[in-house]
Amino acid sequence: MRSLQQQHGVSPLTVQAVVRELSAEGLVTARPGSGTFVARAAQPAELADTSWQQAALGGHSPLDVSSTLSLFAKPAAGVIRLAGGYLDDALVPSAALSASMTRAVRRPGSWGRVPAEGRESLRQWFAREIGGVDASNVMITSGGQAALSIAIRSLTRPGESIVLESPTYTGAISIARSYGLDVAPVPMDDRGMRTDLLPAILERSNARVILTQPLFANPTGVTMAAERRAELMRIAEHYSVFVIEDDYAHDLAIERPAPASLASADPNGHVVHIRSLTKSAAAGLRVAALVAKGAAYSRLRSAKALEDFYVAGPLQDAASDFVNSPAWATHKRKVSAELGVRRDALVSSLAAKLPELAVAVRPRGGMHLWARLPDQVDDVALAGLALADGVAVTAGRAWFPAEPDGPHLRLTFGETSADLIPEGVERLARALDRARAFAQAPPRV
Ligand SMILES: Cc1ncc(COP(=O)(O)O)c(C=O)c1O
């Protein structure tokens, strides 16, 4: 250790840090009392023969979750990211979160057991934030995805139907399919879910659950109009069905005030509400609230406990510390202002450089914008060409529970600074020209 310090002119701390990293990579091993030694080279692994699994797993086609997993894909250097679904590093409040985590792990008992419902302080915070619910209605889950999965699984049985907005979050479609549910799509327009079609859909499908994103829906950016909200709640009461409200973008409002959640005015427990911190704070702050009343709460609680017992205590404590600190309000103001600048940059760049893309709604929050492509363009092929041209965008197809009513793109403004957005749109325009040229080329014989 001493000679390494001298050789490289670095401090003992630096050498220790390097050795820790080499040890983590398995290249050296530390033996207390003896020293640090170069590790024995690992034997090359023999090629495993797993072909027997083909017979054991059977012939079901596996669920394609590639569009959900692409939310986490790291783009190659130089690619402008108009895809994804979380804030970029420039907007993540890393310093404040690290400070909260440091305080959290210093708490006595921080590594101890936690009730399945979660830490009381965090449950109370979510209850205050949501309004109209008590802390006893709240359980803490590992992000919104887990909450969605638990809610959908607990409130349905395989073979039943679930009503999903069309288009909707691709991860929710995958959950529904993975539990063997039939999907009954209800179309969206620029005022949200077409509630006028709901009664017929419920009668035809017998569904007992409707999933909705009333605020800044992913992918359309639409906010459900007040009369549709009221109509949805009337229908839920009339047909005795649950409404799962995925309020994933509640803290990403650009234009305030945002409408109150459905859960905040639901005395009789029709609404099962989901509110996640991952979108507004950091993808790695995997903490969300799943809220329900009555027997539904007990069902969800059992499913949650069977899934993973509880969310790690230090993470819950860090989340609670962060949202109860002044840093939270400062952070939300910053995010809201910056998302507004980015949205405007995207809308104006599209109007200037890609007027053939029809943008139905200028989102009042969230981080996605939905654009209709000219009819002859293949959205998946275009997304591939765009990536080759250095801009990542999301093809719309996977966001429809059934056949899409035309080709669309989802363009995300949450992951790229406003100064890069015009160049991203420029690259997309070039890719669209090429996609059109392909579409018009006569088929090769
Ligand atoms: C609409 C919607 N709901 C839920 C989720 C899951 O988010 P998380 O598990 O990170 O909270 C996502 C992620 O993209 C989403 O877009």
Automatic annotation (TrEMBL):
Pfam families, per the entry: Aminotran_1_2, GntR
Keywords of the record: DNA-binding, Pyridoxal phosphate, Transcription, Transcription regulation
Among Gene3D superfamilies, the record links this protein to: Aspartate Aminotransferase, domain 1, Type I PLP-dependent aspartate aminotransferase-like (Major domain), Winged helix-like DNA-binding domain superfamily/Winged helix DNA-binding domain
Q: What PANTHER family does the record tag this protein with?
A: HTH-TYPE TRANSCRIPTIONAL REGULATORY PROTEIN GABR (PTHR46577), TRANSCRIPTIONAL REGULATORY PROTEIN (PTHR46577:SF2)
- Spell out the molecular function terms from Gene Ontology: DNA binding; DNA-binding transcription factor activity; pyridoxal phosphate binding
InterPro entries to which the protein is assigned, alphabetical: Aminotransferase_I/II_large (IPR004839), HTH_trans_reg/aminotransferase (IPR051446), PyrdxlP-dep_Trfase (IPR015424), PyrdxlP-dep_Trfase_major (IPR015421), PyrdxlP-dep_Trfase_small (IPR015422), Tscrpt_reg_HTH_GntR (IPR000524), WH-like_DNA-bd_sf (IPR036388), WH_DNA-bd_sf (IPR036390)
As for family, the record states: In the C-terminal section; belongs to the class-I pyridoxal-phosphate-dependent aminotransferase family.
Q: Is Zinc-finger given among the entry's keywords?
A: no
Give the protein's recorded name.
Transcriptional regulator
Q: Which residues form the HTH gntR-type domain?
A: 1-41
